[in-house]
Amino acid sequence: MSEDTSGLKSIFTGGWVLFAGLSIELLISLVGKIIIARYLGKVDYGGVALGVTILAMTTTVVLAGVHTGVGRFLPRLDREGEKHGLLWGAIGIVGMLSLVATAVLVASADWLATVAFDTPQLSAVITVLAVSVPAAAMMRLAIGVSQGYQRSLPKVFIRNLTYPISRIVGIGCVVLIGAGSLGVAGAYVCAYVIAAVVGLAYVYRWTDFDLSVPEETHIRELLSFSAPLFLTGALSLVLSDVDTLMLGLFSTQADVGVYNVVYPTAILLLAFLRSFRFIYMPRISELDKAEQVDRIHQNYQLVTKWLFLTTTPILVGFVVYSEDIIGLLYGPEYVSGGLALSLLAVGFYIHSVVGLNGTTLTSLGRTRVILYINVLAAAVNVVLNLLLIPEFSLVGAAVATTVSYVFINALYSLVLYRATRIVPVRTPLLAFSATTFGLATLLHYLATSMEGTASYLLYLVFLSAYLLTYIRIVGVEDEERRIFRGTISQAID
């Protein structure tokens, strides 16, 4: 097997290992959200969602892009002791910032609850969740370390298994004893602490890190690379979380609750992207260091093809059966989010299919360009949310998010093309796209005229036609056959 085929095989096998782990995490998380949404109702669930959103935003800020910087720099360090120094510096930076952030968040909890969201009872939820900021940050840093070592299993074990299992066990206990919103917040705290302990144990046991003070920590180089990523990460919060906060400011807590069952459901479309991206980034970083541009092109286009193949059927199902999905999972009180689910699904689909553009730019070291693009996208998102949420509530938030994702991916793709001449998709895939969306339109028309089981059986017919059309128009490349054979042979051996 050639060196490049071996590299693609590592992305393929690592991606599917990660997808298996991520699928378990998403399934457990989905069950947990269903339990919380049905147990608390959409008003109280909206309060917890606001608290968790604030926690997520704070964690991203205290990470300061260091977890991504570690993932990129570790594959480039060769001398003995360099990796130990880098890990020591990263843990020190994140640990210090997370403790400061916890103190600030606890001190400002009352103001956020009473002044910003006009919901005094939210103060206790924010205070409880603030305690988990250091643990949440360390968990994500440990995952960044495993990415730098190009190891999939630690991420699967820490993020995809330990964290969601701990959280759902905690939620189950909360429901049994009737602890309400504060109990749910406590379940999140316990899950983060357990996952952080497991993550730090991995870093200590299985990497170059030890407790001795290194001669050089590479903090300056790490911060130089991570600073733009810190700002990029902070700006990415505008795309992922500001809609929830602005719904809390300009709409009702009930709408926040509905939006926060719709948003996590739509984000399932990113499962394949997240899985392959984890292994893809350090692989492209290595190829860039070796100046192997042709191999970067091949890796990008082939993984994009896999993302399109796996994600498109999910999009079609979410758009055609949006209200049925929400009603089945969360209950009739959340069905009003059907249109928002369809809109968000389109935005996340576009981001999933071409989302390797930003990852590739990161691997190539174009972090400042990414920063500039994220500034523009953040501005677009905030303006659209301000204009649309007061009038259209959660549908307005969904439109703002979708437009912003289209905007940011268009700019990423343009910059990537100008830098490398990489085109995301080849002509056969474009032809297949047109055929697929023609079939999807027919499915939507027929499904709306039917009810119950007959409507769902149509989706199975669509899937069959989709696969047959893919084989006919796109087919399986020789490189893919070699990867599949090598993966199967390795599994048998």
Q: Which terms would index this structure?
A:
493 residues, mainly alpha, 19 helices, globular
Describe the structure.
The structure is a single chain. The chain is mainly alpha-helical and 493 residues long. It has 19 helices and no strands. Helix 1 packs across helix 4, helix 1 crosses helix 6 and helix 8 crosses helix 16. This is Flippase. Its main location: membrane. It is found in: Cell membrane.
In short:
The chain has 493 residues and is an all-alpha fold. The protein has helices spanning 3-63, 66-73, 82-116, 122-130, 133-148, 153-177, 180-206, 219-240, 242-250, 253-266, 271-289, 293-320, 322-330, 338-354, 356-363, 367-420, 427-448, 453-473, 478-492.
List the uncertain runs.
none
Structural class: mainly alpha
Strand fraction: under 5%
Calculate the terminal CA-CA distance, rounded to whole Å: 16 Å
Largest sheet: none
Mean pLDDT: 82
How many E strands? 0
Shape: globular
What does the secondary structure layout of this molecule look like, with pairings?
Elements: H1 3-63, H2 66-73, H3 82-116, H4 122-130, H5 133-148, H6 153-177, H7 180-206, H8 219-240, H9 242-250, H10 253-266, H11 271-289, H12 293-320, H13 322-330, H14 338-354, H15 356-363, H16 367-420, H17 427-448, H18 453-473, H19 478-492
